[in-house]
Each structure stands twice: as C-alpha cells, then as structure tokens.
Amino acid sequence: MAGHVHIIGGGLAGLSAAVELAGGSEQVTVYEAGPACGGRARSYHDRHLDCRIDNGNHLLLSGNPAVYRYLGLIGAQDTLVGPKRPVFPFIDLTDRLRWTLDLSRGRVPLWVLSKRRRVPGMRLAELRGLLALMEATPDMVVADCLPAGSLSRRLLAPFAISVLNTMPDTGSAALLGAVVKESLARGGRNCLPRFPAIGLSESFVDPALAHLAVLGAQVRTGSRVSAVEFTRGGPVTALQLGAERIEISPDDTVIMAVPAPVASGLLADLPGFGAPDAFEAILNVHFLLPSAPVLTGGLAQAHFIGVVGGISEWVFAKDRILSVTVSAANRYADRDLDELAPLIWNEVRAAIDPAATAPLPVAMPPLRIVREKRATFAATPAQDRLRPGTHTMVPNLLLAGDWTATGLPATIEGAIRSGAAAARAVHARKGTPGRPG
C-alpha cells in the first residue's frame, strides 16, 4: 500500500531517512525550517571571513558503517579523506609534550607495547579503563572507569569530552563504551580518521539533495512545521506550516527528525512522549590565515591535532582556515568570547608552530566564533534514559535524530542510523522491502 512519507527536518537524520526511502513506492517530502539542509553538519559562506566554512568540526572514523552506507547511496563515499594510518597527533600544553598515537591496524593492540606509538607516561595497567568502559552499566559515569594516570588524562578523558560532549564526571560510561567497542576494540582499520575533503555540505548534504531530486523526492526549505495534529489514540491527521495545512491520511507516515527541543514543543500533547531536556554547548573558532601553513610530521598526515590541558580540544588545518573545537562548552558559558579568543589563538600557535615550516602570526588573525548553546543533549545516564525509540504511540508517527535511542552519543553516525531505522520502520509498516544493507 503506497503512501506519502512526510519528513520534518532536513538534518542528517531526516536526509538519511529520505535517502533510504526515495525511489520506492512511497512519495517523500522533506520539510526544513531553515534556508538550507544539513543541521549541525553543513557548510556556509561566512561574510566576515569571506570564505566558506563548516558550522562545526566532525571527526569521523573509517569504521562508521552508517556513514559509509549513506555516502555510498548518494555517491559521495570518495569525498572523505584522511591519513593512511590510524594516527592521532596530540600536544599536552601543560608541559609542551607532543606525541602521535599510532594504533595497530589489526585487533591485537601492539601499539601499547611501543613507547613511540602510545601515550607518553602511560602504564599498561591503565588499559583496564577501556575494559571498564566496555563493561559499564547504564548508571555509571566515565570517571568511574578511568584509573589515575597518563592514559586517562592524556587520551581517555579528552576522548570522552569530544565524543560525549559532556564532562567525564557526569558523562555516560555506557555510551562512551559503545563507541570504544566500535572503534578501538575493532582495531586500527576501524579507527582511520576521516573528514570531508572540501566541506560538510559537499560530502553529506549537496550529494544527498541531488540524489533525492533525481529520485523524485521533494525537499522544501524555509518550511517550518508549526503544529502536528493527531486524534487521541489515532494517527497524525495534518501538519500545519504557517497558514498552510497539509492533510495526512492514515496510510501516510510522518517522521519527526528535528532537534529534541523542537520535537518536545510539537509533541507536547502526545501522551507518553519524552525526550532529553538538558543540553551541552559546542564552541567553534575559525581563524583565517594569510596563507595555508606548510605542515610536517604527524600533523601533515592527519591535518588535525588533539589538545590536552587547554581550552581547545581539537585544531583542524583546512587550507587557510585553522578551526578549533571546544566541546562540553557549558563550562565556559560565563566567559566573554572576546576574552577566550586570544587564549585559544595562543593554544593554536603552541600546537601548530612546532610542526609548521614557518611560525603562525603572533597577532590574532580574522576569526569567526560559532557557539551552539544546545548542540547536543547532555550525555549523562539520566538523559540517556529519556531518549525515545523510533516508534511512538501514534501509529503513523516515527522519530529520528541523534537524540533518539541509537545506543550512541549524539554523533553523525548516530543521526544517520536513526534515519535509517525510521525508514526501516516505514517499510515494516507498509510491508515493503527496504534497500539491501
């Protein structure tokens, strides 16, 4: 039985669902409130810098199956680049110590036996922290699993902050453990760092929109859904878009793929609906250089460096742009951005200068600061319990988004998985075959 699938939200969760469903028996329409699709994973032209930048930095891994399936479906699998080896350069600003974590390609972690390839100062006994994370119960926080030592301070704690966007003393150990199981535990072949060759939109958004257009799906930007109408105990009957009302038949399906606060507002009257209600910020600072730095060593291979002991978490080298990510940024909510920017620039210089053929300018270059106050749900055990599944009590209403119960933190991989799960639920509801996995 054919029907119309209405997808509310054009972020990666919504686009993932649309890509899985387009070209099948159902008509597909995506409604995006903003002027462009992509959500937190898109590129745009910044007028101040007069160049194109990503609205955030996302470090992907070669072992992200949903990401590569999605890119394969839209013909963009070759748009991600990265080093040929699972290498991760770091600097500890406390003592200006630099190293490159160089993982073994196979499952056997031979890297821990080499002082040249592992975290400086780590003890082999500290590896029990990784086992503790993988065995963590839902109520445990990351700090419960981390033994004192260099491995925790210089790798596992920063890794937790970046992955969870939540501090280790409150972040869910089980969610971090799920990531460890899919990355480090599977060996370096699954840990090759990957990022877009050009930009997030060029990899994840533009090819998807072109693919959907060819398959006859409709994508409506600037179309904010202001209300979802449904009968008590029955199906969704209409969507309200300002003055426009779209009738929804019982054979149609609605996929709600908007951020958690938006979904909570639209579904406030839905019995039994719940969603995360505490959030963490992410701060991104994009510095525009007069010319692209010439890099050497591990930084030349990776084009990014992890920063320990500072405000910055990661510095990405993107041609003339040096882009900094500060995760779990609620802790800096009361700090003035004009005060933070010079401090971050000094950290960038400390991280980049020793690996560049020429030093960076002492004077801070032009910059753009992007602070997303509710970038992700706070990945605490309590908030993780609030994440809903794909299905709702309404028979033709499904949910998608990195805030739903994907089993992962709020990541691109999780967002894409949630969209694919919603698409599978549509096929199950209609009794139609989905795309082969």
From TrEMBL:
GO molecular function list: oxidoreductase activity
InterPro entries (alphabetical): Amino_oxidase (IPR002937), FAD/NAD-bd_sf (IPR036188), SQase_HpnE (IPR017830), Zeta_carotene_desat/Oxidored (IPR050464)
Pfam families (alphabetical): Amino_oxidase
Entry superkingdom: Bacteria
Family annotation (PANTHER family): BLR3003 PROTEIN (PTHR42923:SF47), PROTOPORPHYRINOGEN OXIDASE (PTHR42923)
Protein name in UniProt: Uncharacterized protein
Originating organism: Komagataeibacter xylinus
